[in-house]
């Protein structure tokens, strides 16, 4: 295997192991009045469809992926590195408030510093960056957009549900926070 593919597999492996760790050990219990789990599975379905569909549907994907990495394909590595750093930073900043399950605990505070000063959902931004990195590494006219578009769709569905839960819990405080921050991408969306 060529160096680019090896680096891609290392970065992707670290990212996926970290995500698996979060899903195994950060399923914090939330109150039943604001608990929501289905979008986690919807998001996962879009991720699987994006990565596997991107690999299985287009012709010659495997041969194309094994071609030597060019400069633009190496751009997948900063995307994957950013995904790891931003996800770790957002988890650490949320501390005991972080969970892979949507919901808010009584007495939980709204975090609005560091990453959260600029965007409301840096954890989801990290997921999107990771899937953009995977899509870039695919280097395929069909596989790349399938991976990126489907992963973004899954993330967007999940974010909208989380926004509703946070708005219901924090009310005016969250509405004000929404006015001064972007949802996923600083200064853009």
Most strands sheet: none
Assigned CATH architecture: Up-down Bundle
Name of the level-1 CATH class: Mainly Alpha
Number of domains: 1
- Summed up, the helix count is 8
Principal-axes geometry comes out as elongated
Any overview of this molecule?
This protein has helices spanning 3-25, 38-56, 61-65, 71-74, 76-94, 122-138, 143-170, 172-180. With 189 residues, it is an all-alpha fold. Helix 2 packs parallel to helix 6 (122-138), helix 2 (38-56) runs antiparallel to helix 7 (143-170) and helix 6 packs antiparallel against helix 7. The protein has 8 helices and no strands. It is elongated. It has a single domain, classed as Four Helix Bundle (Hemerythrin (Met), subunit A).
What are the defining features of this structure?
189 residues, mainly alpha, Four Helix Bundle (Hemerythrin (Met), subunit A)
